[in-house]
From TrEMBL:
<feature type="compositionally biased region" description="Basic residues">
    <location>
        <begin position="176"/>
        <end position="185"/>
    </location>
</feature>
<dbReference type="InterPro" id="IPR036388">
    <property type="entry name" value="WH-like_DNA-bd_sf"/>
</dbReference>
<protein>
    <recommendedName>
        <fullName>RFX-type winged-helix domain-containing protein</fullName>
    </recommendedName>
</protein>
<dbReference type="Pfam" id="PF02257">
    <property type="entry name" value="RFX_DNA_binding"/>
</dbReference>
<keyword id="KW-0805">Transcription regulation</keyword>
<dbReference type="GO" id="GO:0003700">
    <property type="term" value="F:DNA-binding transcription factor activity"/>
</dbReference>
<dbReference type="InterPro" id="IPR057321">
    <property type="entry name" value="RFX1-4/6/8-like_BCD"/>
</dbReference>
<feature type="region of interest" description="Disordered">
    <location>
        <begin position="173"/>
        <end position="205"/>
    </location>
</feature>
<dbReference type="InterPro" id="IPR003150">
    <property type="entry name" value="DNA-bd_RFX"/>
</dbReference>
<dbReference type="Pfam" id="PF25340">
    <property type="entry name" value="BCD_RFX"/>
</dbReference>
<keyword id="KW-0804">Transcription</keyword>
<keyword id="KW-0238">DNA-binding</keyword>
<feature type="domain" description="RFX-type winged-helix">
    <location>
        <begin position="42"/>
        <end position="117"/>
    </location>
</feature>
<keyword id="KW-0539">Nucleus</keyword>
<dbReference type="GO" id="GO:0003677">
    <property type="term" value="F:DNA binding"/>
</dbReference>
<dbReference type="InterPro" id="IPR036390">
    <property type="entry name" value="WH_DNA-bd_sf"/>
</dbReference>
<dbReference type="InterPro" id="IPR039779">
    <property type="entry name" value="RFX-like"/>
</dbReference>
Length: 598
């Protein structure tokens, strides 16, 4: 192991440790980019659905249940209740924990927080996770309310009141109960346990927690015997006219096949016994298929794409299947198909989210895009395997579509942050509080500490500082904030517009490091001053950092003439890094009958 690798291991461990406390558990293969992206998603979700409200309180188990559902929707592993408590306390400062309810039926609440009035969580059924048991009195409320917990609905007032404060008890995976003290409460010895502990109530004998294993020996989550909440089946989201109007009108660029004559002269092609017409037919049919896929995306018919791919790669495109398989073994054909794919995927992303900051996607549209992005590689892999394509070609195709998945995830995450930040920047009291906290920060002192590392122009730093204060004080709309950030990037890269792409890339990356360092120093100052609006500043900082990243990537993509989704590619990736050389033979003469088998 190299010395550089040894130095990076402690840093990676610390990042994983930090992200785990922020609600993003990481395994050995987790990257830093993935951890940071997941933590931003959690923070944006909290800001979008909850807000500080003095005098209000929410049950801890209810917030944790919402968090688990949020993780399930985004295919992320949730952390335990203790780590979630650390996450929510790091986002919403000065939260207090109180135990509310009647004696024997109380539970812990977060005091000083409430669910936003426009939060979609109000419409979600409030079910209890299978690892929790529900007291009999609360079960009565569930039956009265048609399967929803939380009271209301015209039932017994006393029962409804108790349902709102009924306790849940977590049982470990082995079916054993927590150790209890003589007074019957869960014994806790640390603040972490206090965030996960719940009042101890006797588990009824008819509610037994059982552990089972399937045929493969994999443990099945514990199930409750005697009580099952009424599960509501998932209903497919119905796209609205507003969703369709918000989509982009981008068109897929036409990609020309280069050096066809060179391909015809290669030994590998001539051994296949095919002619130029086969190549032309494949190119035309593949372009037609890509345009059909784009039309399905524009009409939001995601489910039909899998059928389209399966039909094409199984020989249903007007080309014989054996001819299709033979042509896809040629490197030049593979490279052309990958180039067409990347342009298609970039167009698809631009159609779904035409403006990452200003497109106001509905919650259903956002979730549909994320689900589509997570499943599309499965559709493609299934179609390629069923078509018996060679393994190298499948790897290239899958890597290309992963670029789209990563790009779509970045786009939706940034749009999600913009939606949450819009709710902060449109509230007068929040903006004024942020302004009052920000003017107390000595920006020149920050520049003195960061200047010797970043070597930034003090005049530009002061200009950015003044513009930020003006936008904050005047409650400028999101479009003005976007123009302001774009003007900063244009100013930094103005003298590099005619320079090579690698120079633009290096300057842009260095600017991102400088920007991140300055913003972290400002957040540090706000932390030391115990700023009231610290949570709002954290959200704005996340949005600004992500949008700066997007703007720099866009500039690099234009300078290098490549799709935006491929800017962050690694050298080890398949589609764009592998270069092959092919021996060329002269054109076939009359005596070359052994090669010309057309």
């Amino acid at each position: 192991m190299s010395q550089d690798t040894n130095r990076k291991l402690p840093l990676l461990y610390l990042w994983r440790r930090r992200m785990t406390l922020l609600g993003c558990p990481a395994n050995a293969n987790t990257t830093l980019d993935g951890l940071v992206s997941d933590s931003k998603l959690h923070i944006g979700w909290l800001f979008e659905n909850y807000e500080i409200a003095e005098g209000s309180s929410l049950p801890r188990c209810q917030l944790y249940d919402h968090y688990r559902k949020h993780c399930e929707e985004h295919r992320m592993d949730p952390v335990n209740a203790a780590s979630f408590g650390k996450l929510i306390r790091s986002v919403f400062q000065n939260l207090k924990t109180r135990r509310l309810g009647t004696r024997g039926n109380s539970k812990y609440h977060y005091y000083g927080i409430k669910m936003k009035d426009n939060s979609p969580l109000h419409l979600a059924p409030n079910t209890i996770h299978p690892e929790c048991f529900v007291p009999p009195l609360q079960q009565m409320g569930v039956q009265r309310n048609g399967g929803n917990l939380g009271g209301g609905g015209g039932g017994d007032v006393y029962v409804d009141t108790i349902n709102q404060v009924a306790a849940v008890k977590y049982v470990d995976m082995n079916g054993g109960h927590r150790k209890r003290s003589k007074r019957g409460h869960s014994s806790t010895s640390s603040s972490d346990d206090r965030d996960s502990a719940s009042p101890a109530l006797g588990v009824p004998t008819h509610q037994t927690i059982v552990n089972r294993t399937n045929e493969l020996g994999v443990s099945i989550p514990p199930q409750q015997i005697g009580f099952q909440p009424n599960a509501t089946p998932a209903v497919p989201y119905i796209f609205t006219d507003q969703d369709r109007k918000g989509m982009g009108k981008a068109q897929m660029p036409n990609v020309q096949f280069t050096d066809k004559a060179g391909l015809l002269s290669t030994i590998s092609f001539r051994k296949l016994g095919l002619n130029e017409g086969h190549i032309t037919k494949l190119i035309e049919e593949y372009d037609r298929m890509c345009y059909d896929v784009l039309a399905m995306v524009k009409s939001l018919e995601f489910s039909k794409i899998e059928e389209m791919w399966s039909s094409f790669w199984s020989g249903g495109c007007g080309i014989k299947h054996d001819v299709l398989m033979a042509l896809c073994t040629l490197d030049k054909i593979q490279d052309h198909i990958i180039e067409v794919d990347l342009n298609l995927y970039q167009t698809m992303v631009d159609v779904l989210i035409p403006n990452v900051l200003l497109s106001e996607l509905s919650a259903g549209m956002t979730q549909s895009c994320r689900t589509f992005g997570k499943n599309i590689d499965v559709y493609l892999r299934k179609a390629l395997i069923s078509g018996n394509l060679n393994e190298t070609f499948i790897k290239k195709k899958i890597q290309a579509i992963k670029y789209m998945q990563q790009g779509l995830k970045r786009y939706t995450s940034l749009n999600h942050l913009a939606h949450a930040a819009r709710g902060v920047l449109q509230k007068d009291e929040l903006c004024q509080q942020m302004y009052q906290d920000y003017i107390k920060v000595d920006i020149m002192a920050v520049h003195q500490q960061a200047g010797w590392i970043c070597n930034c122009d003090s005049v530009m730093v002061q200009h950015v500082n003044n513009a930020f204060k003006e936008n904050l004080q005047k409650m400028k709309p999101m479009s003005v904030w976007a123009e302001w950030l774009e003007s900063i990037v244009d100013q930094v890269l103005a003298k590099y517009h005619d320079k090579p792409s690698n120079m633009v890339s290096n300057v842009g990356k260095q600017f991102l490091l400088n920007w991140s360092f300055y913003t972290s120093m400002i957040i540090r100052e706000l932390t030391l001053r115990s700023a009231t609006s610290f949570g709002s500043f954290t959200l704005i900082r996340l949005l600004a950092d992500d949008y700066m990243y997007h703007l720099i990537a866009t500039k690099i993509a234009r300078a290098s003439n490549q799709p935006l989704i491929t800017v962050t590619r690694q050298d080890k990736d398949w589609p764009l890094a592998k270069e092959t050389k092919e021996y060329i033979v002269p054109p076939a003469d009359d005596h070359d009958d052994d090669l010309n088998v057309n």
